[in-house]
Amino acid sequence: MTIKFTRQVQALPASVPFVGPETLERQSGQHFAARIGANESAFGVSPKAIDAMSSALGISGCSWYGDPENHDLRTELARKHNVDSDCICVDAGIDSLLGLCVRMLMEAGDSVVTSDGAYPTFNYHVAGFGGVFNKVPYTDNKEDPDALIKAAIENRAALVYLSNPDNPMGTWHDADVIAQMIERVPTNCTLLLDEAYVEFAPDNTAPPIDTGNKQVIRFRTFSKAYGMAGMRIGYAIAHPDMITGFNKIRNHFAVSRLAQIAALASVQDTAFLTSVIEKVQIGRQRIYNFADENKLSYLPSATNFVAVDMQTEQKAKAILAALNEQRVFIRMPGVSPLNRYIRVGIGTAAEHQVFIDTFNKLC
Amino acid sequence: MTIKFTRQVQALPASVPFVGPETLERQSGQHFAARIGANESAFGVSPKAIDAMSSALGISGCSWYGDPENHDLRTELARKHNVDSDCICVDAGIDSLLGLCVRMLMEAGDSVVTSDGAYPTFNYHVAGFGGVFNKVPYTDNKEDPDALIKAAIENRAALVYLSNPDNPMGTWHDADVIAQMIERVPTNCTLLLDEAYVEFAPDNTAPPIDTGNKQVIRFRTFSKAYGMAGMRIGYAIAHPDMITGFNKIRNHFAVSRLAQIAALASVQDTAFLTSVIEKVQIGRQRIYNFADENKLSYLPSATNFVAVDMQTEQKAKAILAALNEQRVFIRMPGVSPLNRYIRVGIGTAAEHQVFIDTFNKLC
Questions:
Q1: What number is the average pLDDT over the span B236-245?
Q2: pLDDT the model gives residue A363
């Protein structure tokens, strides 16, 4: 007897968006000395969040379900972004929110426009619900808003995805470019504007938030600048009608209580955020300097990683494999022509020293 | 302009499976003195889990993504259940796993069989993916395996759901009854056997686990006996082909790292589990005694709550509302004829004293 999966699931390949560093560690039998491959923060969590979690480790923070309305956090985020709290959906990370968006806005067979080489987990969800990809190439290592909009129009796309700043290249567009893109989103299409890395970007990267626009969903996360990737909490900002859609299908108790507690403490700790941003700027400069010293090109970054040009796919893959084997965890873009780069995360000075020493030993 | 939701989402009502206690607290403007309504544990988390989490509060436990393979925990659970680790899917709670099951095994329009009054969150997912309900009544306040199987056969159901022990009534069937039910699951139908409360039940409640059977998925959780409802971690045990299906669609990074750490420590702390089970047994007896003293019937329970018979729906609803207003959070079954009962959670002795004093004051 075979299991009667849905036609959609039956047709899916067994795939994963990312292989975790723990999997690589189990394969090699050794622990990474520098974990700078998953765009995680090397600068930890707000001390205020640690204090709040420490106080709650027990019944009130672990045994009780989280507030399904995420009320207190939404209230604080609404204040931060100067929007109504009905315009915010908190969920267990942007990954989960992207899955909800696909399920909510895309019928099987609908077109979805994204950049060739952009965030694989979004693609995982689109494939999982039977979407049809229309991928446009990066232009000068940047996602191309103009090409994305043209493809969305031509293909009558249900969704168009853009990450600004971009992952995996670290490049970005100024707010006015994105604002122009937003104006051109075609009817019956929604722009998913992933701003996971926006705290690391120049001030004029994010256009003003307009919750009156029903065609845009903005995504923010506590995974990156706030250092809470392992805690699974992020949020969408959108028109209240869109939030009502999320509320029809989300797992209402999906956000862990400790994540709610830590996020609330973190968002109030602006000094911590500032210090992380500074550390990331310093870390980017370390990688820029490393590249210069090795006569390698790099892409100026608005994120917590830097794409360093190894000139060919072959060289990039070889150095990546060698680094991983030498206990330095990094990743690289998966698609040509982006895959002549390796993506070096902003670790601590110590982690970067391990990376640089290992790189220099290998090259 | 209106948002172009999928037809399925457009047709859904804005509904939530449960209103959280925090929502009630915000409405009343007062905090609950006894939180015994959501089947959460009043006995907290394993001290070993607390220690493990405390040591990890920071980069390694919060800033790093969890292992997407949940490798170490699956290995330990495989040992515990004497199954292969390929037969286990760890995810962010049974709620999430039930959603994945529905998406994976049920086409829109397929029949789903459950008991009228059983777990609302399962129904939420079935409705969310367009399933058609065939509900059978409880018999003597128990879910009725015979009626469920008959309905599954008659309606060519894709899924049949049974919780053993049952929520919201606390009743249970012996293992041999469930084993007979498993034998009768019709072709092309999967039995979702929710065993969230099984640790509280008599020893002969769970039939042997047979991962060679492709038609059964067993669900276990760290939310109840292990006291980790707020941490979102549970697992499915099934045939490896079924686990492959989960792996095609689950959010691979969905489980928080602290939950992985705490679950691993908890599953190894059998002394803690034993102590919680004893405390729950003592707490059930307290509620049995309370009921006897008030000349109320109750249902012997194999869970961490007791259904107490208020004789009529009207009386049950009235006392529930009065208790909630007097800062005692409890819930009750939502459907007739189960809703002549109120469901009293096993709190601490202090919480139960608040409940009993308040009840006696009101009645």
A1: 98
A2: 86
Give the chain B residue whose CA is nearest to the CA of A261: B230
- Distance of alpha carbon B70 from alpha carbon B75, whole angstroms: 9
Residue identified by tokens 């602006």 is A270
CB pair distance less than 8 Å for B107 and A256: no
Distances (CA, A) of A362 to A34, A97, A315, B55, B181: 16, 40, 12, 35, 62
- Name the pLDDT band for B17 (thresholds 50, 70, 90): confident
C-alpha angle A227-A230-A234 in degrees, rounded to nearest 5: 70
Among residues B280, B281, B306, B305, the alpha carbon closest in space to that of B292 is found at B306
- pLDDT tens digits for B153-192? 999 999 999 999 999 999 999 999 999 999 999 999 999 9
Q: The CATH number of A48-267 is which of 3.30.390.30, 3.10.320.10, 3.40.640.10, 3.40.1710.10? A: 3.40.640.10
Among candidates A346, A357, A341, which has minimal Cα distance to A299?
A341
ipTM of the complex: 0.98
Report the distance separating Cα A178 and Cα A171, nearest Å.
13
Q: Is B68 on the interface with A (CB under 8 A)?
A: yes
User: With bands split at pLDDT 50, 70 and 90, how would you rate the model's confidence at A117?
Assistant: very high
Give the number of C-alpha atoms closer than 13 A to the C-alpha of residue B356, restricted to the C-beta side: 19
Cβ separation A66–B230 shorter than 8 A: yes
First CA to last CA across chain A, in angstroms? 54
Beta-carbon separation of B41 and A59 below 8 A: yes
B7-44+271-362, what's its fold? Aspartate Aminotransferase, domain 1 (3.90.1150)
